[in-house]
Amino acid sequence: MERGGILVAGGAGYIGSHACKALAADGYLPVTLDDLSSGHAGAVQWGPLVRADISDAEAVARAVETHGVVGALHFAAKSLVGESVREPLKYFRENVGKGVAFLEALQTAGVGNILFSSTAAVYGDPAQPRPIREEDATRPINPYGASKLAFEGALRAAARASGGRCAVLRYFNAAGADSVGDLGEDHDPETHLIPLIVRASRGETPPLTVYGEDYDTRDGTAIRDYVHVEDLASAHILVLEQLFRGQTDLVLNAGAGEGVTVREVLLAAEECLGRSIPAVVGARRDGDPPVLVADTGRLTALGWAPKKTLPDMIRSAAAWREKTAALS
Q1: How far apart are alpha carbons 218 and 261 in whole angstroms?
Q2: What residues form DSSP beta bridges with 250?
Q3: HEC readout, the chain
Q4: pLDDT digits (tens, 9 = 90+) for 41-65
Q5: Residue pLDDT, tens place only, 103-137
Q6: What is the set of domains in the chain, with CATH numbers?
Q7: Residues 196/286, Cβ–Cβ less than 8 Å
Q8: Which candidate, 11, 121, 119, places its Cα nearest to that of 69?
Q9: Could you confirm whether 144 is annotated as catalytic?
């Protein structure tokens, strides 16, 4: 039985499309709102596509009325750290300005359950290399993180003022692809480590660039927390249903709770794929902290736990790339 429509802003993107699949499997109707500036129409497979900008109040109102929308997931954002450093106003316009317009449209349409896709970038460069807790200081070191934090504040303040319910999921590093091959990671440009490793392993790109090997970590390369995109999608369903049960103002880290270095990911990929992967060392990138690992205690207390491992992420990403390459 259908449980109502969920408006998914950015549902044609990588994480958003996986969340749409998970919503449909759980009985909801995912209604994708996406201008397709970076998403893909082919990723919209489990519900209707409303092709519009998230700041288009009329499109939001029509989608809510037409499809019986009872909640919203907000994934739509610009998300390239380096670009945000070069073009900060673009990031505040897209991630904050348009986000606030989307929020106003949802409130006008009577949608009061909103889950926002945020990022570990809001924490900046943590003072201590331990798992980050949600109550830790938020000091973004790039405009991308600052824009996401600004919208978090707007969302939470609006919910308190209106009586609506909201939640924020702060992602660490999403990776992997759908286990049956329906969806995968298809960014242009691609900036994420695991798909770049897969492409380099196939000879599709120049050698992988490892950005910095002089960090104060166990092998000199940056440490990150990787979580499979299907596990992340399941977290969205769980948290959305907490909102429906009356909880609000939830701020939750979403990661595996374990950190691995870039070199360790590279070695794991060589083992999983059975071949050496060419790599060169480059300079550190602006805005990259040495260690980002999540304390996921709040999310696991709700009954969530990641089920998939780093090798699962690598193998599923490689299978997706193999499939898409064969079709191209």
Answers
A1: 8
A2: 167
A3: CCCCEEEEECCCCHHHHHHHHHHHHCCCEEEEEECCCCCCHHHCCCCCEEECCCCCHHHHHHHHHHHCEEEEEECCCCCCHHHHHHCHHHHHHHHHHHHHHHHHHHHHCCCCEEEEEEEHHHHCCCCCCCCECCCCCCCCCCHHHHHHHHHHHHHHHHHHHHCCEEEEEEECEEECCCCCCCCCCCCCCCCCHHHHHHHHHCCCCCCEEEECCCCCCCCCCCEECEEEHHHHHHHHHHHHHHHHCCCCCEEEEECCCCCEEHHHHHHHHHHHHCCCCCEEEECCCCCCCCEECECCHHHHCCCCCCCCCHHHHHHHHHHHHHHHHHHC
A4: 999 999 999 999 999 999 999 999 9
A5: 999 999 999 999 999 999 999 988 777 899 999 99
A6: 5-175+226-254 (3.40.50.720), 193-224+257-292+307-327 (3.90.25.10)
A7: no
A8: 11
A9: yes
Q: Residue 115 in contact with residue 169, Cβ under 8 Å?
A: yes
Catalytic residue among 14, 28, 91, 144: 144
- Tell me how crowded residue 240 is: count the other CB atoms within 10 A of its CB: 24
pTM of the model: 0.94
Length of the chain: 328
